[in-house]
Design brief:
single chain, 141 residues, mainly alpha, 33% helix, globular, binds calcium ion
Length: 141
């Protein structure tokens, strides 16, 4: 009887521990990249997306949510110039390919416009090193 009780208590404790562990892995945008490693928290840019965590300028914000090409912290007309140069092919820039399809197209412009008219800031990113500008070291997971 006592042994059964001990077994029951251990099972219960195990269940609690298991639940706590399962709850600690949060993936808000369900892109299969845990939030603590996800360089675009609110946007799916995981292994099932072409933009899979690609971060051309290694500032901790994935290309999918980073229209701040000159790293001044905001998406402005200065960044639009960079986009335009890449879009026309005059000056290619790896950062302007937001969806990761290998080219800078109107699809990427939709993303830029969204950032430009929205929060106008890159991210948010789950990486604690993201956004330190100027960025002395690459910010990678
Ligand atoms: Ca993401
Ligand atoms: Ca970036
Ligand atoms: Ca900028
Ligand atoms: Ca693209």
């Amino acid at each position: 009887m006592k042994l059964k009780l001990i077994m029951l208590v251990s099972l219960f404790a195990f269940g609690l521990a298991f639940n706590a562990n399962a709850g600690s892995v949060v993936d808000a945008d369900t892109d299969l990249v845990p939030d603590g490693f996800d360089n675009c928290l609110g946007l799916a840019n995981g292994p099932n997306d072409d933009s899979n965590q690609v971060d051309a300028d290694q500032d901790g914000y994935g290309n999918a949510c980073d229209s701040d090409y000159n790293d001044d912290g905001f998406t402005t007309t200065l960044d639009f110039n960079t986009f335009l140069q890449a879009f026309t092919g005059a000056v290619p820039d790896a950062q302007t390919d937001h969806n990761g399809d290998g080219a800078t197209t109107t699809l990427d412009f939709t993303r830029f416009l969204n950032d430009f008219t929205g929060a106008a800031q890159p991210g948010p990113s789950g990486l604690s090193c993201a956004g330190h500008s100027p960025n002395p070291a690459p910010c990678l997971p």
